[in-house]
Prior knowledge:
Blueprint: E1 2-4, H1 5-13, H2 25-32, E2 49-50, E3 53-54, E4 58-60, E5 64-68, E6 101-105, H3 115-121, E7 126-131, H4 133-147, E8 153-158, E9 163-168, E10 173-179, E11 184-191, E12 194-206, H5 208-211, E13 219-222, E14 232-236, E15 239-244, H6 256-273, E16 282-286, H7 320-339, E17 348-352, H8 355-359, H9 391-404
Parallel strand pairs: 7-10, 7-13, 12-14, 13-16, 16-17
Antiparallel strand pairs: 1-4, 2-3, 5-6, 8-9, 9-10, 11-12, 14-15
Helix pairs in contact: 6-7
Pfam families: PC-Esterase, PMR5N
Membrane topology: Single-pass type II membrane protein
Main location: Golgi
Amino acid sequence: MFIAKEALSKSVLRADHLKVDLMPRKVYDETVNSIPGNSSVRVPFQVPHKNSSLTIELCDVSKGSWVRETGEPIYSNLTCSFIPENKNCQKYGKPPHYLYWRWKPDGCDLPRFEPEKFLDLVRGKKLAFVGDSLARNQFDSLLCLLSQAEMPITVELNPFKKIYKMHFPSSNFTLMVMWSEFYVQGIPVVINGTTSSSFDIHLGKINTNWTSQLPSLDYLVISGGNWFFRKMYLHKNGKLIGCVNCREDEYLKDYGMEFTIRSVVRKALESINSCQNCDGLVTFLRTYTTSHFENESWFNGGDCNRTEPMDEEEINLYGMEWDIRKIQKEEIERIRRFNGVGESNKKFYEVLDVTKAMKIRADAHPGAYYNKNMYRHANDCLHWCLPGPVDMWNEMLMLNLINTSSYDLI
């Protein structure tokens, strides 16, 4: 995501007048897209003019580094009652070093999260997270951040459909999370009467548990990727066409993770784009975040005992996580082109690009510091402590909400 630095401070400081000094999305896109190399830039702030010529200073908040932070987090396990036992690292004794770092984009600052301002931005709106347990991780983070301004009430807790919905009465804001690890229909494979870790994935059949909720939403945050490392059997048009991670099944074609992830992300975005009564819906795709298991994997003794963020030189820039991120961003660009700015189908698509920032934070997982009965006494090096760097995802989300306020002008 890019921001115009001069305009950022004005818009952040004047959150109660978010439509002041904003130009309509179509006009701005035409302006910014004329800049060489910036065909997909999304910066809906008014462009500063100098000497009657158009000048834009861009800052990509996905590129930066973690710097020392002296202040305390907005919330703690003592001030937020919504922290799950498996993310409550401070309760279970994790040393607090991981709390005192802040994401600093190259060349600009990411505004700090302000609960009151966020609730003002989403007044009268509905926002949902869709994905796996990391979507729930971000939901829990946002719930904790906002609860410092107002305590929400539970509206719906549906274990069957895996929907959790909260409401903030004073701002009439509804926040919800919906579990859908594949976006499409994924059914566990049963072997000899026992549910296995493999799945039948129906590429052409969307999971309607979440898409049925779309007409009621103003904002949607989708994410995923971690469940695609399992063995999967791929189905299309009612037929088994192949598999993923299935070397022993020689009679089936292994399509690979990249094909499968692209297929389901595309299906999800196309389902959103074809939604009736969804004009104005803004969809954010949060990019993939990797685990940091060292010395084996999750259930084989793997751990994550680092006490500081990794150095840039330590991270691999060519692993699967970057391939997944690339696919996610490409599919967002594809649906933008398909959707068309200014056309009758008024839906909008943005990216919360957190892959690099979180690749560095091997120090901020629960590890051994949680109620380990939840994961068969294994160390958790996939999810993120609360509070922790996952809160930065919601700082990016808040910045995007400020940006996308200009869409109301179209």
